[in-house]
């Protein structure tokens, strides 16, 4: 791929053809990623080290933590961010390879339809991630986690585990849910903006 294609691809990703799309890129790329990268590490970075059960033994702590966290929230949200970026990245890669200028995307029906389809895919992926987050993490992190350690062949089957900083994690969960909702709203608003431009209610950039 030539430098011109790379430049066109990067410009398309950073500067979508709609105003709301540009705001979405700013929100998604700066606020959401900063929140996850900086605050997420501060909240969840040492969770495994401070997760303790009764009795406080390494094998019990590790077994119960793996049961408590089948996947760590940071990994889940990082995968979510990457996967949600894929539809837009494919579109802008296509536009770069076809030498389509950003201002021409909303002028031709086929380009517009393809772009709207990529936005719809973003919405679907966000909704699926929202549902998976509910299934994995719920809406609240409790201070006590009851762990089933029967597989360890211990005399006890259920043990109590202390979850560190559970209140901070609850706030962080709510924040990530909120970010997902905001992103979906922005995607819907972007489709509405495109429709208004195509119908002539708004001036095309």
TrEMBL record:
GO terms for molecular function: gap junction channel activity. One of its GO terms (biological process) is cell-cell signaling. It is a multi-pass membrane protein. InterPro entries: Connexin, Connexin_CCC, Connexin_N, Connexin_N_sf. The chain crosses the membrane at residues 25-44, 75-94, 114-134, 171-192. Signal peptide: none annotated. The keyword Cell membrane applies. Residues 125-194 form the Connexin cysteine-rich domain. It comes from the Eukaryota. It is found in: Cell membrane. One of its GO terms (cellular component) is connexin complex. The keyword Magnesium does not apply. Its main location: membrane. Belongs to the connexin family. Beta-type (group I) subfamily. This is Gap junction epsilon-1 protein. It comes from Toxostoma redivivum. The gene is Cx23.
């Amino acid at each position: 791929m030539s430098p011109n294609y790379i430049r066109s691809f990067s410009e398309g990703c950073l500067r979508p053809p709609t105003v709301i799309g540009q705001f979405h890129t700013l929100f998604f790329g700066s606020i959401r990623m900063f929140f996850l990268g900086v605050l997420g590490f501060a909240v969840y970075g040492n969770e495994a080290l401070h997760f303790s059960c009764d009795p406080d033994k390494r094998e019990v702590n590790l077994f119960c933590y793996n049961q408590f966290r089948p996947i760590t929230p940071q990994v889940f949200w990082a995968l979510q961010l990457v996967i949600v970026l894929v539809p837009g990245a494919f579109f802008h890669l296509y536009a770069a390879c076809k030498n389509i200028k950003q201002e021409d995307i909303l002028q031709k029906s086929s380009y517009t339809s393809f772009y709207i389809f990529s936005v719809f895919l973003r919405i679907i992926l966000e909704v699926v991630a929202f549902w998976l987050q509910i299934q994995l993490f719920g809406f609240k992190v409790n201070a006590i986690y009851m762990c089933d350690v029967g597989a360890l062949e211990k005399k006890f089957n259920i043990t109590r585990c202390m979850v560190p900083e559970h209140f901070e994690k609850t706030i962080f969960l709510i924040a990530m849910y909120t970010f997902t909702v905001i992103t979906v709203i922005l995607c819907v608003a972007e489709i509405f903006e495109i429709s208004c431009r195509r119908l002539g209610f708004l001036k095309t950039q």
